[in-house]
Amino acid sequence: MIIRAIRLRNFGLYAGEQVFRPSTSLDGAGSITLVGGLNGRGKTSLLEAVLLNLYGSRSPVVRASEDAYTTYLESLIHNGADRAEGSAVELDLEIPGDGDSHSLLRIRRSWRVANKRASEKLEVWRNSREDEQLATNWNTYVEELIPSGVSWLFFFDGEKIATLAEEEETSESLRIAIRSLLGLDLVDKLITDLDAVIRRNKARLRDAEGAEVVAAIEAEVESLERSADVIRQQHASKNNEVLRAEEARRKAEEEYYRAGGTLAESRSNLEGQRRELEGRLSEIRSEIRLLAAGAVPLLLVVPLLMQVSIAVESAAAVHQARAILPLVQKRDETLLNKLWEHIPDLTKLDVIKRFLEEDRAEMETLAARTPPIDLSAVGLGQLEALLMAGRTDLRERASVLVHEYHETEDRLEQVNRHLLYQFDQAAVNERLAELSKAAHELATKQLEKEQLQKRLHEVEGQLGVARQRHRSALEKFHQQLDDLDDAKRNIATAMRSQETLRAFRKEVTERKIHALETGVMTAFAELTHKTTLARRVRIHPETLQITLHVESGDEVLKSRLSSGEKQMLAVAILWGLARASGRDLPVIIDTPMGRLDSSHRMNFVTRYLPNASHQVIVLSTDTEIVGAYLDSLEGAVGQRYHLRFDEQLVRTTVEPGYFPTKEGITA
Length: 667
Prior knowledge:
This protein is an alpha/beta fold. It has helices at residues 43-55, 60-64, 69-75, 132-136, 138-145, 163-166, 172-182, 184-206, 211-258, 261-292, 302-342, 346-367, 377-419, 425-528, 563-581, 598-608, 628-632; strands at residues 2-11, 14-20, 32-36, 87-96, 102-114, 117-126, 129-130, 155-157, 536-539, 546-549, 555-556, 587-590, 616-620, 637-646, 651-656.
């Protein structure tokens, strides 16, 4: 597995979004990523963020906290951030598959404060596509990827692991890790499950019931059967009453209609229709009168109107000639005078004069005529409108109104004809009262019948449950003797199975534990280069206690080890167990050299860090991986980050580089 990116948003001291992109030897780069920061600047928060992203409320850091999980999440929101927006931790992981294939996972765990309480959300993307099923079952998936029981072998705080070598008794977390590596956790679970089987069967022996239970249920069944029979009889009787009420209502309805009930019901509606139709006829007559008072009558003399139009046009020509004749005479005189001045040829001048005199003579003839009719310009326009578009519109509107008038008149006649029918209103009212009474009695009987049906359904349901309980009680009673024997057999079988599993666990432990011992001893020898200090590591098969031994077999007491040797033993335990797990996982180390003296620091830097994994993230102070130790890692470091802390804003940001040197150049 490779960590491609770690993104923190408003997490702890980290303000805004801060991104780490660790290097890995699998890309041909250095396997080590150095993250430098002074104490209290956010190094431990980075390790905490990774564990929280992977395990949520099951994170070792959360379990070590005394706060509730929601309170713990609230405490991680950056002080300067909007609590309603909250915080988030995001990991980009590359997971190897079959052959050269791999999957890219993005895990985003976010939380915010809503309604005074932190709410968490987990989202997972596989190969850039959101996978809701994977997010739902993430706890199961991550246990296959990085079991929580062994996670601290790969993600650990250097200052805290020294207890592994200082305590004479093996810590519970180390026992869990060793059991997980040995595969004993499954065996232990089976033994625990068998304990539950034994408890259940012992309870069966204690809770055996007698015949009195069956008798009590039988009495209950008989009581319910009697109640059901009574209700069925009442329901049948009530059903007959409903049938009689239905017949009475049907007869009352026939008498009502025979007395003229339909006419009475429709009379009010018919009278309303008559008023509406009479009103519409009045509206149509008014509109027809308006049309008759207008231009509609002229539609009868359209040919005559066309002759009038022609006469009006002739009269207009006469009036026009009379109006312009004096102007023409004056124009001709002026024109001839001008021509006389410029054209000396009298022949040409006579031709023009004759043309003007002939034109004026035609106009004088037209002006001398008597106009056939005298009509104003407004009247002429109205006449033209009538003869053109108005004639068609008026005829169509008149035709529509006449058609609607006749149709409305026919409907009014039908309504009046129905209203002429006579009936006895008093008789109708009497029959209507009888019909209402019959309908009310029918509704009452039907309601009573439905209530009985509902009650019968409830009793039959109770009866069905009681009969089922009776059958179960009988079966249980008849099988009690056999069950007692069966429970005893189950207890004996479970106890024998537990003994077999314990023997199997012991055999597997003895067979596999040697590989763990060899792995831890090899790692310890590589780290210390002291063959005389110890020649063998032993892990007790039952207590899982780890001890050192010299060549003779005598135990080397941990109290005799120096602080540096204890720290190296702790690292060797983690390194050896991690190797034995067979899992190619990244390693994250916080404050790696805080407990090491100078004689062991160089061994740790040169022998462990470059070989711990294909990807190692080291969270170092300015007194650890610096100077000669940093120089010794030349070529193994692929990425460097520095945690810059703003004292005024109380916030940490991530920047490329490492601790500044005395010369001002980033280390």
